[in-house]
Amino acid sequence: MPTRTDAARGQAAPHPALLFSALGDETRLWLVERLAAGQPRSIAELTDGSQLTRQAITKHLRVLQDAGMVRSVRTGRESRFEFEPASLAQAQAYLQQVSAQWDRTLARLKAFVED
Description:
19% strand, single chain, alpha+beta, two-stranded antiparallel sheet
């Protein structure tokens, strides 16, 4: 999957398609919601209160991590996952870019029709 350089952080940012694909799953949206509450959580904590297995949570976290939406922080023998808010800013910037393109296209169409 293509990546682009995120100049602010000096590392490759995931392609917007990875972000939107990751957000396209109800379970992953639920995980993002839980992690966006601000506190890093372990897989056991994320599994608590759900019908999902640890393996399922791990699989979804891997997709979110590949999309740059969460990151893993090692605490002793345990990995804790935390939300990366910059990923949503990237998605928002992409949507604003697409919206601006549509606005320009519609303005050209309007000018053509009115002339």
